[in-house]
């Protein structure tokens, strides 16, 4: 049945609806997630926060994202993609809205509620990409998967625009706006059916046929009734089965860890660093972030195209090496100018083309390297393991600079170059892992990837069952 899907060379209106729901979801979830970077720029002065306290606020959502990625990802393999999609949106939207009630000097409350924001964000990212991929033909999977992530910088950019627009005492309004993504639940309920591949693996063949027929805008009777040969034998997912695929673990876990440590360390700290190092106001810092998000958006579109042009491995290597080198160069130029303009700002913007743009590879590829019955569990585990970077990225910079130092526009900090070497090396590790150890998935159907993974893992029984069915 899925061979009919793979022969398609264009997307139907209903497939575009699924894609749109995922795109809107990603944009709004990361709008909620990165709001804290702009809010923190307003609080560092009035609350007299230290680097250590600020790092605690920033890393708390990372801890939540780790747990959310593992738990929601596992649940999506057990109960379905659609239910988990809805649950995660409600999770992070409500938690962001509750941040409106943050008391003055309440950095502990801020940290606790940010944990729950991260819980939902980590979950949604691990379910919406696999859901979209399972509705798409092989020839479009890399491009479409990358396209879903392209709007994430727009979510960050929206936060930058709003951060530049509100007064210093109105920062709570940013969190109130963060409730709006809950409206996405209505779109999901109207537009997005359950994944036909997930239904097929549960033995719910008639429902799978109806789901795919809806996506292709065909009469269900025009599609053959699926069997185990279409999506593999019925297998109940077991989280421990992830360890039967060591290469998938290596590539997806370390690739995510390197990319997330670098990009979250930069993104969460940069608005505050602009205030500290460049002596600008929080509103001006938010405006400066708009340039970075523009480069990130262009980078994501480019890397979505690169994933099909040069393959996942080469594109992954390019993101890691490009981001790593430019991050280190930016750190060494934190106090220099080019024709009166901050070199730190300009180099970081170009680096964002690779650092943030490369997530058009990191996310979709992190799902592709896992077999179908473990796809969201595998991607969730990779994103969760990489979520360590949401902690060690911002905390690592704070420790290098001095966690007890107060964040105040004083003198430039000489430890900044070392902190950016630290972040840049994480990008370089990701590039090396993708380029030297990656599994090439370009142009392969999901079923072909499943067979190859089964063979490399030595799962002869499963492979034989697929062939016989």
From TrEMBL:
GO terms for cellular component: plasma membrane. The chain crosses the membrane at residues 21-45, 51-72, 84-101, 107-131, 143-167, 173-192, 253-276, 288-306, 318-334, 340-362, 382-404, 416-437. Keywords: Membrane, Transmembrane, Transmembrane helix. One of its GO terms (molecular function) is carboxylic acid transmembrane transporter activity. It holds the Pfam family Sugar_tr. InterPro entries: MFS_dom, MFS_sugar_transport-like, MFS_trans_sf, Sugar_transporter_CS. Residues 18-442 form the Major facilitator superfamily (MFS) profile domain. This is MFS transporter, putative metabolite:H+ symporter.
